[in-house]
Design brief:
Elements (H helix, E strand, L loop, with lengths): L7 E5 L3 H12 L3 E5 L11 E5 L6 E5 L10 H13 L3 E4 L4 E3 L2 E3 L7 E3 L5 H7 L5 E2 L4 E7 L2 E6 L4 E4 L1 E4 L3 H8 L13 E12 L10 E4 L5 E6 L11 E6 L1 H6 L5 H16 L4 E16 L6 E3 L4 E3 L13 H18 L1
Parallel strand pairs: 1-2, 1-13, 2-9, 6-15, 13-20
Antiparallel strand pairs: 3-4, 5-8, 6-7, 10-11, 11-12, 14-17, 14-18, 15-16, 16-17, 19-20
């Protein structure tokens, strides 16, 4: 690499942390390539589209991240940008709790934000103007004197001077085995799984006005949202259900159909009867970090290797959308200040 020439950075994983990093490096004039195995961007800030029957209406359900909050100046600036442009909206300031059959109201609190078109919009906005290749499953990483070589399942190869991994730590370790030794702290990072079920309803729930419920003491469920309250008027009524971590772990390898029926039955225990016109179940194996990396990001200068994600700890508020953004931004600040 010629002195003074910005390095080519390869980012594997088009989740929010990786996209936030890529956006800042690109804005600074660096050459950045992003690869992701999925068919779209945003990682766990994911929105499932469902065509409803018999009308053919399109429903959008956020089956990963539920919403996001903004506490830091950088995130607040992004929120204002999104509100002004119209791709972001405030969803609610109240999320009541359900316990032992009763809903406990709470006063208005801080804003929860959701793009009207779904949480995946956040990643799509961050990816504007970036070089992102989806459907690219990286199966092998090789370190060489000039940097890194990434090999994809379909035979494609990408080389770069420096490498950043934006994926759960347990997925990073197998890719780096035999290349870098300083990875002990990554082995301590752990995750809890989550089964999610989305359902489009024939009719909205009766006599409720809350947008979502935190479910405190049900054996299976921890979250239930009326997804259509996030969307423009006319969206088909829909529910999004997230299972408890312990329930998800106990049923980790169950058939999707069995999980779907079990969680729909659990939801009826909470909110009463409803009719479903279409539904899906999705398993997030690495849903919530339970033991996080002790730092906002990782960077091994000698290896030209880094990592970022909500499983790092860029602030004290826990793993969430803003944590992912902050992790990517903090790593970008570190790399740009170094250059």
């Amino acid at each position: 690499m010629t002195t003074g020439t910005p390095p080519h950075t390869l980012i594997i994983g088009a989740g929010l942390a990786g996209l936030a990093l890529a956006r800042e490096l690109t804005r600074a004039g660096q050459h950045v390539t992003v690869l992701d195995k999925a068919h779209g961007v945003s990682g766990r800030s994911s929105t499932r589209r469902m065509e409803t029957q018999p009308t053919g209406e399109l429903a959008r359900l956020d089956h990963g991240a539920r919403f996001f909050t903004a506490r830091t100046p950088r995130t607040l600036a992004m929120v204002q940008e999104g509100l002004t442009a119209g791709w972001l909206a405030e969803w609610t300031r109240r999320v009541p709790s359900w316990s032992a059959g009763r809903v406990s109201e709470e006063p208005d609190g801080h804003p929860r934000y959701v793009p009207p078109a779904g949480m995946s919009t956040l990643g799509k906005e961050l990816a504007q103007g970036l070089t992102v290749t989806t459907g690219a499953l990286v199966t092998r990483l090789q370190q060489h004197p000039g940097g890194w070589l990434a090999e994809c399942q379909d035979g494609r190869q990408v080389t770069a001077e420096q490498l950043v991994l934006n994926m759960p730590a347990p997925q990073i370790l197998p890719l780096l085995e035999g290349t870098v030794r300083e990875l002990a702290r990554l082995r301590d990072v752990t995750f809890a799984p989550c089964w999610a079920v989305g359902a489009v309803l024939t009719h909205d729930l009766n006599e409720v006005d809350w947008p979502a419920l935190r479910i405190l003491d049900h054996p299976a469920l921890e979250w239930l949202a009326r997804e259509h309250t996030k969307r423009p008027p006319g969206h088909p009524p829909a529910l999004m259900l997230h299972a408890r971590a312990d329930w998800s772990q106990a049923h980790l390898n169950d058939e999707r159909g069995a999980v779907l029926e079990a969680l729909l039955a659990a939801a009826r225990e909470v909110v009463g009867p409803f009719e479903v016109s279409g539904a899906f179940a999705h398993r997030w194996l690495y849903a919530t970090p339970t033991q996080r990396f002790p730092g906002g990001y990782g960077w091994l200068r000698e290896a030209a290797l880094g990592w970022c994600g909500d499983w790092c700890s860029p602030d004290p508020h826990g793993p969430r959308v803003e944590a992912a953004l902050l992790s990517g931004w903090q790593l970008s600040d570190a790399l740009l200040s170094r250059d």
